[in-house]
């Protein structure tokens, strides 16, 4: 179905919603969301290119070596130096192996470079260190969704939502995966919840995105709509 193909492309992206909209600490700057989308409802590659690229910000910018290394990785990513950002973050996790956030950020950079399996390993390590890491579960779900591994994607989104039931991006991605597996009613319910959450958060751009997806799904099976 054409609509499903369009919605599927939205997955290969949520590093913008996951976007480094997919990189984020809970306000996320989308690396994981805006990472891959090609003319998708959730975000397009063109729109990602037009916006400054951002890696999730570390919540605390003190003079410590840790924060300095994270800032350096962020600067490299902003400059489009993904290889440099990756090298910087690999040094970071080697020096701070128990830092879940560092592993998560490394996963985001790897995801942005389409190194899916390596990114998954980094997210898994972040989750091992910090079991209730909703963002990392969501990011893994996005990777699986980009590979049409829908059952695995749904499993990861569920884990993210068990940790944070009001995770708007997680609910949106979960809905898209449900739609891909022909669970339309459940998908609509999840999208409606995400929509209400984004409205409460005054996130107008996300509200518009979810409303577009809702319209697409609701009219997808209507024979009167070409």
Descriptive report:
It is a single chain. The chain is mainly alpha-helical. Helices cover 66% and strands 0% of the residues. The protein has helices at residues 2-11, 15-18, 45-50, 65-78, 82-95, 100-112, 116-129, 134-146, 150-163, 168-180, 184-200, 204-220. α1 runs antiparallel to α10 and α9 runs antiparallel to α10 (168-180). The model is unreliable at 10-54 (pLDDT under 50).
* Mean pLDDT metric: 78
CATH hierarchy, class: Mainly Alpha
Here the CATH topology equals Serine Threonine Protein Phosphatase 5, Tetratricopeptide repeat
> How far is it from the N-terminal to the C-terminal residue, by CA?
12 Å
- CATH architecture classification name: Alpha Horseshoe
Q: Which sequence of SSEs, written as H and E, runs from N to C?
A: HHHHHHHHHHHH
Structural class: mainly alpha
The major pleated sheet works out as: none
Specify the overall morphology.
elongated
Number of helices: 12
Radius of gyration: 17 Å
Proportion in β-strands: under 5%
Could you name the ranges where pLDDT drops below 50 across 5 or more consecutive residues? Answer: 10-54
Q: Please tell me the total number of domains.
A: 1
- Within CATH, the superfamily carries the name Tetratricopeptide repeat domain
Q: Into which percent range does the helicity of residues fall?
A: 55-70%
| Count of beta strands | 0
Structure at a glance:
With 226 residues, the protein is mainly α. The protein has helices at residues 2-11, 15-18, 45-50, 65-78, 82-95, 100-112, 116-129, 134-146, 150-163, 168-180, 184-200, 204-220. It has 12 helices and no strands.
